[in-house]
Amino acid sequence: MSEYTLCPISPSDRRACQAMDALLVQEGISRDRNLTYSVGLFDEDGTLAATGSLYANTLRCLAVSREHQGEGLMAEIVSHLTEVQLARGNTHLFLYTKCESAKFFSPLGFYEIARVDGRLVFMENRRNGFARYLDGLRAQLGDAQTPAAALVMNANPFTNGHAALLRRAALENERVVLFVLSEDCSLVPYEDRLAMVKAAAAAYDNVTVVPSGSYMISSVTFPSYFLKDDALVTRVHAALDATLFTRIAQALHIVCRYVGEEPFSPTTRAYNEALARILPGAGVTLRVIRRAEHDGEAISASHVRQLIHDGPLEAIRPLVPETTYAYLCGPGARAVARIRACADVIHH
Predict the structure, then answer these.
(1) pLDDT tens, position by position, 291-336
(2) Cα 161 to chain center, whole Å?
(3) What is the pLDDT of residue 19?
(4) Nearest-CA neighbor of 203 among 237, 164, 242?
(5) 10 Å Cβ neighbour count for 158?
(6) How far apart are CA 197 and CA 324, in angstroms?
(7) Concatenated DSSP letters for 176-204?
(8) Cβ-contact 32, 61 below 8 angstroms
(9) How many CB atoms lie within 10 A of CB 36?
(10) Cα(304)–Cα(345) distance, rounded to whole angstroms?
C-alpha cells in the first residue's frame, strides 16, 4: 500500500488546484464555487489520490482516484475535514453525494436525510438530527393542530413585495409559519434579515417567524458540482426542497405554501413550477401570488439593493415597509454599508 501525505490545497497553488480539478472531473464532478477549504492526499510520487473540501457546515467535492479506491482514503479525508470543522466550531455537519456513493459515507458516521432518486443524497452526521429539528419547530409553534400556511423567505432585504405576500397569507389563513433562510450568504446578514421580517410580521397575530435551520437550502449554496446543467440543478434543488418541506409540513400541519410570481429569473420560475408539480402529491398546495408592483414594475430585493448601492437610502422608501426603512436607518446600517461596498449587488 502506498504512503500518502495529507496537504491543504491553497487556491493560489495552481498546480494542486489543477490536479484537484482533474480528479473531480474524472469522477464526474466540477469544483464547487463555494469552498472555504480544500485538502488532498498525495502519493509518494506527488500524484493526487483523494480530495475533499468545505463550505460552511458542509463537506463538498469529495473524490478518490479510481486507481486508489478501496484503500480507505475517503475515510481519511472525511476524518480530517471533520476535525477542521470541529476546530471552526461546526459540530452539525452535512454532505451531498451521488446516490451510488452514499453507501461509502454511512460507515463514516453520516446518515441519510433525503434523496432525489438517481441524482443526489443529502446526509448529516447526527442520527436523529432532522427529527430533533422538527421537535424544535413544534416546541416553538406550540404543536398547534390548526392547518397552517407557510412562507419561505430570504428577505435580502424585506421589501413591499415580501410584505404583500405575507399580508395575503395572513389574511387567507388562520395560522402562518414564516421561515427565514438561516444561511448567512447574503449581503444583508441573517440577523438583520430576521429582525426586518419579525418587525413586519408583528402586525399579524397569526404569524410565527422561525429560522429555517440547515434543512432548507438556498439556491446560492445548493451544491451543483455533480449536476450537468442549470436546468437540472433547478429541478434537483426543487425536488430536494420539496421532499424536505413535505416532511416539515406533515409535522407542523402545513397545508399550503405561498411563493411570489417570478417575472425576472427563469431559474426561480422553473423552481416554482417544480414545486407546483411535487408538493400536491403530499397534500400541500402551492399558491403563486402575483408580484407587488411600484410604478408598473415588479418589486424585487435586487432592485432595492441596487438603489441602496447607487444613491441615498431615501430612494428605497416607496419599495419597502416603514419597518424595513427604519431598521436600515438604525441597527441595519451595517447592511447598508455592506451593500454599498459590493461591486455586484444583483447576485447577492
Answers:
(1) 999 999 999 999 999 999 999 999 999 999 999 999 999 999 999 9
(2) 21
(3) 97
(4) 164
(5) 31
(6) 8
(7) EEEEE-----SSS-HHHHHHHHHHHHTT-
(8) yes
(9) 13
(10) 9
